[in-house]
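TL;DR need structure tokens for one chain.
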Amino acid sequence: PPPPRPSPPPPKGCPDGRCQPTRLQPTRALPPPRRLLTPPPPKISAHGWGDPHFTGFDGSRFDHHGAPGTWVELIGSARQGYSLRAKFSAGTHVAGTTYMRSFLFVNGTSRVDVELLPPLPGQTIWRLLATANGQPVADTATIPRGISILRVPAAVGKHGRVEINAGFTRVVIIQKWRPQRRVVADFLDINMFASPFLLKPVTGILAPSYDRAVAKASQGAVAAAAGGMQLMGAGSATPDGES
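>> reply
TL;DR here they are.
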């Protein structure tokens, strides 16, 4: 067999070959690693009140009175199986006006009906009722798709409300206590809160304002991301102090 190869000579200054390797010292301190902080998508909201007036998701204002006895879609997405509708009823105080007294919330096979009915004999307060998939809601309920419902009846000195929370949207339907008149309202107001995640096309009388609000939010997110990229190169502290 061929003779074994000789071992390489030890490094200079290490005659026995047991020296420890030299640790190189950095010439400058390196900045800590940084990460881009992406802001969460902003919540956008819309409102409807009175006979009826609306504030859109982008802050625009308009009136939509509808015709007594007709349903109108406020916001919806057929691809997402989502729709929120309002039913208009004739006003009781001023001729020719309409109020919203019923709402229908649908998400897939789950539905929530909210209705304001005239007071029973001997009573003065209109009754705020809610059903979830056909079952009356006394105070709280949960139905498929993770939809939760909260019902609080109105009383003298206290607003009534039905709150529907589906994760991607939250709807609060309000029966107001009107202190200036010392009465509980015989109509319903509505507040709608959403993240900009509805699948297009979005429909309903609030759809144009929703599309404008989402476009504005997207522009803000792009600007925030661009600012974050510049921040990463600058080596300064992030807005919330994280690194």
